[in-house]
Write a structure and sequence with these properties.
homodimer; alpha+beta; 6 helices; 3 strands; 63% helix; DNA-binding
DNA sequence: CTATCATATGAATATAAGTTCATATGAATG
DNA sequence: CATTCATATGAACTTATATTCATATGATAG
C-alpha cells in the first residue's frame, strides 16, 4: 500500500482509462530501444549516406563483422532496415523515411535543450 | 583485419566523412534509450493526460513510489519532463512537445509496419 | 565438389539497466 | 521541534543487452 492518504481517485481513474494498452506501450518502448544504442545509431547514419554491405559497415565503423551482423538483425526485426542479396554480399538499406524523421526529432530535442 | 579483399575505400571514406561525431551519436542513442522502456513510456503517456505528482503516477501505474522516482530522474535528466514543488508534493509534467512528436512518429512506424 | 568469401548465429562473457528495500531529505502541521 | 507525509537516493539483486569467439550457412568460382 503506497501513500493512499490522498484520494485523487476520480482524476486518476480518468488518466488510467486513457492509457493505451500495455502491448502498445511495450511495442513503442521496444521500437525506441532499437534507436537507443550508439552502434545501431552509427549504422543508421551510415545508411543515410548509402546502402552498404555488412563488411562495408564493419569497416566504416571499425567493428567486427559479427557485432554488426547481430545489430543488423535487431534493426531488421524492427523494420528499420531491409536487405537484399547481391551475389555473395548482403546489401542493407533503410526501410523507410520514419527512421530519418524520428532521428531528426531527437536531434531537434537535443539541440534545443543544449 | 576484417574481409579486406574488397576495396571500397573511396566510397567508404566518403560515408565515414559524413558521419556525425561520436558524441552526437552517443547523445542521440542516450536520448532514445530514455524512450526505450515501458515504465517510462507509461509515465509519459500518463503525463499526456495531466500533470501528476509522484505518488499519483505510482498509483496509476500500480508501481512502487521508489521505482517511479528513479525513472522520473532519468526523464528529468533527459529534459523530457520537468517538475515543480507544490507544498509537500512534486508535480511532474512534460517538458515540451518533442516528446509527443517523437512518440507519434514511433507510433506511425509501428502501425504502418503492422 | 572443394575452396573461398560474405554473412549469420549460438554460446559465453561482461556490462548496463530496472526494481526493490532501507533510509535519507525536505516541507508542512500541530 | 517532533511527527508525518511526499519524494529522493544508495546499495543490492536480477535481468537484459552488446560484444566476442567459434563455427555454421550460403553463394560463387575454379
Amino acid at each position: 500500500m503506497s501513500h493512499s492518504k490522498h484520494n485523487h481517485s476520480e482524476k486518476l481513474n480518468l488518466v488510467l482509462s486513457h492509457l493505451p494498452e500495455d502491448s502498445l506501450l511495450c511495442d513503442l518502448g521496444d521500437l525506441f530501444k532499437v534507436f537507443g544504442d550508439t552502434t545501431r545509431m552509427r549504422i543508421l547514419f551510415a545508411l543515410f549516406q548509402s546502402e552498404l554491405c555488412v563488411c562495408a559497415i564493419a569497416e566504416v565503423l571499425h567493428m567486427e563483422q559479427s557485432a554488426i551482423s547481430h545489430q543488423l538483425r535487431i534493426l531488421r526485426e524492427a523494420k528499420l532496415v531491409s536487405s537484399r542479396r547481391e551475389g555473395k554480399t548482403n546489401i542493407y538499406f533503410l526501410a523507410d523515411d520514419h527512421v530519418r524523421a524520428i532521428i531528426e526529432m531527437g536531434y531537434e530535442h537535443l539541440t534545443e535543450k543544449a
